[in-house]
Amino acid sequence: MKRALLACALAALAPLASAALPREIGRAFLDAGIPLTDVGIVVQETGARRPLFAHQAEQPMNPASVMKLVTTFAALEMLGRDYRWRTEAYLAGPLVDGRLDGDLVLKGGGDPKITLEQWTSFVGALREGGLASIGGDLVLDRSAFRLPPHDPAAFDNEPLKPYNVGPDALLVNFKAVRFRFVPAADGASVAVIAEPPLPQLAVGAAPVPVDGPCGDWRTSVAASFIAQPRAAAASFPGRYPRDCGERDWHVALLDAPTYAHGMFASAFAAAGGEFGGTVREGRAPVGVAPFAVLDSLPLYEVVRDINKLSSNVMARQVYLTLATVDSPPPATLDKAREALARWLARRRLALPELVVENGSGLSRNERISVGGLARLLAAADASKVREEFASSLAVAAIDGTVQRRFQNGTVAGQALLKTGSLEGVRALAGYVIDNAGRRFLVAAIVNHPNAARAQGALDALVQWTYRNAASYDPKR
Predict the structure, then answer these.
(1) Residue that is last in its domain, among 296, 317, 344
(2) How many domains does the chain have?
(3) What is the pLDDT at residue 16?
(4) pTM above 0.90, yes or no
(5) What are phi and psi of 416, to 5 degrees?
(6) Angle at 51 between CA 50 and CA 52, to 5 degrees
């Protein structure tokens, strides 16, 4: 009876789908409770003029994080693979015998990835340059971006999640705190270590170690976070299963200026410097050489992190940087959108359905079609930045967001993919290389309340492309 109903469903939906859609692909989505009216798919050999099959190819759909493919390909071509951001430090006063009689000004350039290690090195360069103490304040020049106020709770009411951190011209360490849970060797206690150690963050009670499976350890520690813009506190008065070993929990706390202030004060003190000032907004002096400079990683490495790990805030930083190609700072969302539109026009890339809100896919408003994704993937494959773009994608069963997928499949190591996931959305797009070396582009999006069930069907599409695309005859 179930097979008969399934056959009827496929037959009824056939007029809405491409006649060439393989039945086993359609069946996989229907088995997951997802009607084909809410699925878009394109499979095409790179260099071919037409797809092997396409289903609802031009239907605008929410792609979730697959939208990062648009942002990163545009950035590689518009900015260049070796583009770097600069963070600069200026002395607003005389430096006499190691003491600055004035303020230290830090000017952000929109660097998407200032890590804890890079920040420590930057602050160390100030000390090596002869800065031992600061008599004034820390002044932050964040004027490279002009953005509306960011509400980290607006998207899904999860303001402490690092994926909801907003872009900032002086974004340091993703504005996140890593809480490390470290059991003592004798199992009698658990230490909670905050990294970085910010003076504005108080860490209270640690959990009590107990026997038992790790399970949902974040619930069992009974975390309590007090998150104010200028001060924060965290305590964990619950229980911590010994089976967990060491664990990490990343939380976004404090506002961007306070976080940068805490990061600087902590790192400067650790380097032997003296600073007791406050933090405020301001502008860097004009016509003066910086005292120290932090150059970012090259763009191709940043793009690799964005696509393999699906970093939202890094993608948003890069998207805003597109605005600087044709226009001086400050970068705005409108300028970035206009710059992207000009690039698409120069590229003759037809994406009439494209709607970009922030370039990361963390949006309910962004739209693209699978046909548009296919055209983008084809253009990237023929581009001068082909290798940088392709190598930024997660490798099936190897790394990134698909490290744990395809473990039992023949396609392991043979698919380069970007995935996307929101409530009601599942998507993937990228390249599949078969055992003969033929390269196929795949784009698939599901927009349906049951989208969370779609992973098996999406994975089956990738496996099917690896095994069958080269020999597929849509007329049979």
Answers:
(1) 296
(2) 2
(3) 32
(4) yes
(5) -110, 115
(6) 125
Examine the domain organization and report whether 272 and 407 are in the same domain: no
For residue 344, which phi and psi values (nearest 5 degrees)?
A: -60, -40
> What's at 334, amino acid-wise?
D
Phi, psi angles (nearest 5°) of residue 418? -115, 130
Residues 416 and 387 sit within 8 Å (Cβ to Cβ): no
Is 92 inside a domain boundary? Answer: yes
Q: Which residues contact 68 (CB under 8 A, 6 or more apart)?
A: 306, 307, 310, 315, 359, 360, 361, 418
Rounded to 5°, the CA angle 60-61-65 comes to 130
pLDDT in tens, 385-412: 999 999 999 999 999 999 999 998 789 9
State the DSSP code for 361. Answer: S
Q: Is residue 476 part of a domain?
A: no
The domain boundary residue, chosen from 257, 272, 296: 296
Asked if residue 255 and residue 110 are part of one domain, the reply reads: yes
Please report, to the nearest 10 degrees, the dihedral formed by the alpha carbons of residues 273, 277, 281, 283 taken in order. -50
C-alpha dist (Å) from residue 419 to 69, 151, 426, 428: 10, 25, 8, 4
Q: Report the alpha-carbon distance of residue 309 to residue 171 in Å, rounded.
A: 18
- Is 245 found in the same domain as 128? yes
Strand order of the β-sheet with 103-107 is 279-281, 138-141, 103-107, 86-92, 292-295
Residue 64 lies in a domain: yes
Q: Which pLDDT score, from 0 to 100, does residue 19 have? A: 41
- Please state, in angstroms and rounded to a whole number, the distance separating the CA atoms of residues 255 and 171: 11
Q: What is the CATH number of the domain that holds 118?
A: 3.50.80.20
Q: According to the model, what pLDDT value does residue 6 have?
A: 39
For residue 323, give the H/E element and its range: none
CA distance 403 to 426: 17
Q: Are 221 and 181 in contact (CB under 8 A)?
A: yes
First to last CA, the chain: 27
Please check whether residues 437 and 399 belong to one and the same domain. Answer: yes
SS3 readout for 185-203: CCCCCEEEEEECCCCCEEE
Task: Determine the pLDDT at residue 21.
Answer: 87
**Quick check: bond before 298 cis, omega within 30?**
no
Q: Is the predicted pLDDT of residue 9 greater than 70, yes or no?
A: no
Residue 333: domain span: 2-81+300-471
Asked if residues 292 and 88 have their Cβ atoms less than 8 Å apart, the reply is yes
Residues 218 and 307 in one domain: no
Give the span between the Cα atoms of 333 and 315, in whole angstroms: 13
Q: Residue 185 falls within a domain, yes or no? A: yes
459 and 327 inside one domain? yes
